[in-house]
Amino acid sequence: MLEPLASAADAADYGITVTAAGLARASARIRGYVRQRITYGTSTVTLPASDRRLPERPVVSVESVVGEDGTALVAGTDYELVGDRVDTARTDRLTVTYTHGLGTLPDDLVELVCTVAARMGGMPAELQAGVQQQGAGPFQQTYGWDAYKAASGLTEGEKQVLARYWPRLPRTITLGSSAG
């Protein structure tokens, strides 16, 4: 399990009380939504000829690119990093080792993690289990659909904040297979 994206001390700076479990849950939920590790790290991936986009963003640097035949490619000569893509004339699979992610999260992301953690930790157990109505008569309590979705995921506003950093990328469907 990856470290939480924020700490209890970060939450306290925003006047928010959270638990360690809440921060872990919120971090997992946010990472799952953006499909990114988010924190700084190094990965090695094998890219097909049809899609040379590196999966983790932002890309910080590329340490090595190796062709399917074991040939090490030279930056600036055999390939270039263009945004989050490895641009090369080669048509074989490439194994790329690269660094990615954020060394320090921007304040708005730290605050978002803390807010999500507090909300997830403060939801009644019934709501987390999916109950939308409980009790009877004047003691009846009804949870709205947005409250239920917020307990089980992220709000639309939170998704918009995350989209500023990790916009949804178009999905590529490769038809057929490569020759060879």
Description of the structure:
The chain is an alpha+beta fold. The protein has 6 helices and 7 strands. It has helices at residues 8-13, 20-34, 107-122, 125-128, 145-152, 156-165, and strands at residues 41-47, 59-67, 80-82, 85-87, 94-100, 133-134, 141-142. Strands 1-5-2 form a 3-stranded antiparallel sheet, with no helix packed on it. A two-stranded antiparallel sheet has the order 3-4. The longest helix has 16 residues, at 107-122. The chain is elongated and about 70 Å long. It starts with 7 loop residues before the first helix and ends in a 15-residue tail after the last helix. 18% of the residues are buried.
Protein topology:
Blueprint: H1 8-13, H2 20-34, E1 41-47, E2 59-67, E3 80-82, E4 85-87, E5 94-100, H3 107-122, H4 125-128, E6 133-134, E7 141-142, H5 145-152, H6 156-165
Antiparallel strand pairs: 1-5, 2-5, 3-4, 6-7
Which regions are unreliable across 5 or more consecutive residues at pLDDT < 50?
none
Supply the number of helical segments: 6
Reading the helices and strands in chain order gives HHEEEEEHHEEHH
| Helix content, binned percent | 25-40%
Q: How far from one another are the termini?
A: 38 Å
Strand order of the largest sheet: 1-5-2
How many β-strand stretches? 7
Q: What structural category do the secondary elements indicate? A: alpha+beta
Global geometry: elongated
Kindly estimate the percentage of residues that lie in beta strands according to DSSP.
15-25%
Mean pLDDT: 86
